[in-house]
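PROTEIN FOLDING TASK:
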Amino acid sequence: MDLRQFRYFGQVARRENFRKASEDLRVAQSALTRQIQILEQELGFLLFDRVKRGVRLTAAGQRLLERSQHILGEVDRLKETLQIEAHVPSGPASLAAPPSVGRLLFSRLAQTFLKSYPKVQLSLLEGFTSSALGQLRRGELSLAIVTDPPLDPLIEYTHLFTESIYLVGRPDDPRVKKRSLEVKSLADLPLVMTSRHNRSRQLIESSAAREGIRLDIRLELESGDTLQQLLQSGRIYGLLPYSSIVEDAQSRRLGGAPIRGLAMKRYLAKSRSEANSIARETLEKTVIGEMRELAKRVGVRERG
């Protein structure tokens, strides 16, 4: 006894005619008749009375029809549910991003996934380029937002946007009121910077070295809150991507001027060896959409 026999039996019962049922089912009438006979033999009773112009259900056949239709309905509903769930994002997905980007992105991502993809176990982590790429290679992350990463055959990159590096200080400081600054104007300014492991710091120092200037780095600091307090004091300057200061600049808590020729490219990175999942695919599409919108919203220019 199998589902195919139940479907054949149901169609014969509806049509009350083997020939018409076989045409509907697109099977040979002899094959259909044989399947019904096998079903009757397995059950031990007749399902149809043969009448002049076709067949008619027996009392036992009527009871089987009711039960079999219920079973087939449950099977169809189960199949539909499984097909839907197979395309519903679920399971773990993780994203690492620099603190400056995470502060603007993570809350929006969390709200989107809580509302639209509640079956995804989302992990949002702060991390800089070198550590995030290492986690991707080890299979510890689904995705990472990285800055000007090195070429790597194991990693696939999608460009998100390019943003300028700003000299940041008190909003009333004449230097940060300028439309833009040259790299050489940074010489002798007291600076607070992130650690040497930070990709933005590496890019800034490389650019300064090409200009033949030495940066006066007085402090290394990773704490965003402490950094803001120091910059507001007017005793020191920072060199930061625009995403780090956009909210403070718009509220006039800090001021900033872009450094000409000094910019960084943000990429979305994923491992080529990691098996794709609907959860990762959904996170990837959502992150790309949010980052493109973020670039417009905070005034970061797309540069292709």
